[in-house]
Amino acid sequence: MLFLRRLFDPFSIAVIVAVLIATLLPAVGRGATVFGGLTHLAIALLFFLHGARLSRAAILAGAGHWRLHALVFACTFVLFPLLVLALKPLILPLVGETLYRGMIYLSVLPATVQSAIAFTSMARGNVPAAICSAAASSLLGIVLTPLLVMVLMDAGDGSGSGLGAVGKIVLQLLVPFLAGHAARHWIGAWVARHQRWLKFIDQGSILLVVYTAFSDAVTGGLWQLVPAADLLALALVCCLLLAMVLWITQLLALRLGFSTEDCITIVFAGSKKSMATGVPMAQILFAGGAVGPLILPLMIFHQIQLMVCAALAQHYAQRDEAPLSAADTA
Q: Cα(102)–Cα(297) distance, rounded to whole angstroms?
């Protein structure tokens, strides 16, 4: 039952419901303006809470493992984009130009925080290092992602120049994040005590962004541009990309002599992409109607990575204490 809950978690279902509501009842006119304003406030609150949760002690505990973090960052911000660019002759005919741009956007996003740590813990990996890598990846992504978008997608037409996009990201994401972390001294204990219901604020913020983005996209004719066959092809492409990254991250970790626990951390921190960061960031980087199709690959990849990593974490958790081998990678 726990395994099934991880495969089909309520939040993933809620995201699908938000897309369906936006398809049937999109926000238009004054409603779109109101939802746009609420979305900006929700994004700021989301990153404020992220900052308030960040434990300096946990970060320092894993910060010294620089080789592990360097490999995770290389997989997140170098390996992913290189694979998507290398696979362009395969991906582009299958999904079309719009969804391929969404695949590029997916490839330059930072890693997840909560789920990467949760799966590492479940698999008995190096949790302090996972906390450090995931948190640092999110912070680096605030600057690296818009720069990589500018280089790989020529996305200046969405919201100004690349440097202007970085400025918007810093103002709307990094500033609330730093403010939340600065306020941790006063509100950290309260946030820790109320994690259970505060997660609904996090998820509600993302759902609001998804609804607003898809309302704009549906109004602009999203489902005429993206037929069902393209969605199926996109899911297959996401499966292929995740399989390649999982195999390469573990192979690199093994060849570089990392311990079993560190290999697990590298696999989960280096192969995942963050919807919590990617969806709000897309809202800032791209023009209204363009956001929906650009985050479709992220939404599909997010669900696939949860399903696959849940099974993989259970496999790792049942291992003996012998080092991982090529058979585990396969």
A: 6
How far is CA 138 from each of CA 5, 54, 217, 277, 316, rounded to the nearest angstrom?
26, 11, 27, 7, 25
- Count CB-CB contacts under 10 A for residue 191: 16
pLDDT at 157: 45
**pLDDT tier for residue 62 given thresholds of 50, 70 and 90:** low
Collapsing DSSP to helix, strand or coil, 220 comes out as coil
Q: Quote the number of domains for the chain.
A: 1
Do 176 and 45 meet the contact criterion of CB atoms below 8 Å apart?
yes
Query: 59, 135 in Cβ contact below 8 A?
Result: yes
Name the strand (E) or helix (H) holding 57: helix 56-63
**CA nearest neighbour of 312 among 277, 276, 266:** 266
What CATH number is given to the structural domain containing 18?
1.20.1530.20
How many Å apart are CA 109 and CA 124, to the nearest integer?
26
pLDDT value at 94 more than 70: yes
In angstroms, the Cα distances linking 73 to 68, 149, 209, 274, 285 are: 9, 17, 27, 14, 22
C-alpha span between 129 and 133 (Å, rounded)? 6
243: helix, coil or strand? helix
The parent domain of residue 63 ranges over 2-329
**Lookup: tokens for 197:** 């219901």
